[in-house]
Design a protein that fits this description.
By secondary structure, this protein is an alpha/beta fold. It has 9 helices and 14 strands.
């Protein structure tokens, strides 16, 4: 196994009597692009704020790049964070933001951000409030990357963008990751977009971790089983039902199968896509867990 950029154990965040995050256990490999998905209120933003040191956990343990998250220069110099609202000063130009970034960050690469924005035809001398939503998102991403972070945390960065702007943003992100030395955790509801750029997935639902693994491993372990209704009792112990639907005569099951476990011949196996698997885990959280 390779090095780990993020590790949590039984991590929790409580507001009064309400647990926004509970028993969260995740491991994110260095150099991966991890999709953080879940319904509204699942705890995604809470988790990201803990990872960047903007919020303190109520329970459990967390390490980020082998450090405890803190709002301190020694920790933050290796972290890039882009919040959902794209935090830019609307009256300032991109050039103004670049100047601030250069003054605030020791490793800030001014040449690379100017080159990146020039390639995207984004004017440096126009107030960012007068740029399109996609252009503002690109400026914010370029500023975050110019810090030369080891870890980039993105909270719904493409939620308000049109399809073309989303495509351009994600292409820029893929290019940055390809240059090496960067781990990304990106929260989004847009599963198709995440599938294009991610190699690791974290599913949160009901404030808890439902799934955390490499996408290739997830696809290898999960299957759709189609068979006669009422035959679920014939399944072996190594077959775990995540979600099930039924008609009068037929059952369709999304299952995780332990290595070496055989499927009875009365069931037909089909390959699900990653979106079907993620939605099944989100659904089973409402239904009370996996069998």
């Amino acid at each position: 196994m390779g090095a780990t950029a993020i590790q949590t154990k039984d991590l929790g965040k409580r507001y009064g009597s309400f647990w926004a995050l509970e028993n969260c256990n995740i491991s994110v490999p260095e150099g991966s692009v991890s999709a953080l998905v879940g319904p509204n209120g699942a705890g995604k933003s809470t988790l990201l704020k803990i990872l960047v040191g903007l919020s303190t956990a109520s329970d459990g343990a967390v390490t980020v790049l082998d450090k405890t998250p803190l709002q301190h220069a020694d920790f933050l110099s290796d972290i890039g964070y882009l919040a959902q609202e794209i935090p830019l000063y609307r009256s300032l130009t991109a050039a103004d933001h670049i100047a601030m970034g250069s003054n605030l960050n020791q490793r800030f690469d001014e040449a690379s951000i100017r080159k990146r924005l020039d390639e995207l035809s984004i004017p440096l001398n126009r107030p960012v409030g007068k740029l399109s939503g996609g252009q503002r998102a690109q400026v914010a991403l370029a500023l975050a990357l110019a810090k030369k972070p080891k870890l980039l945390l993105l909270d719904e960065p493409v939620a308000a963008l049109d399809p073309l702007a989303r495509h351009d943003f994600l292409s820029s992100l893929v290019q940055a990751v390809a240059e090496g030395g960067l781990t990304v955790v990106m929260s989004s509801h847009l599963l198709a977009d995440l599938e294009r750029v991610s190699d690791h997935v974290i599913v949160l639902a009901a404030g808890k971790t439902q799934l955390c693994d490499d996408i290739d491993t997830v696809l290898d372990e999960h299957w759709l089983l189609v068979g006669p209704r009422g035959h679920t009792g014939s399944l072996n112990a190594g077959i775990h039902i995540i979600h099930e639907t039924h008609t009068a005569k037929q059952s369709t099951l999304l299952v995780r199968i332990d290595k070496g476990t055989k499927v009875p011949t009365s069931w037909q196996k089909q390959e699900p896509n990653i979106e079907e698997i993620i939605l099944a885990y989100m659904g089973q959280a409402k239904e009370g867990g996996v069998r």
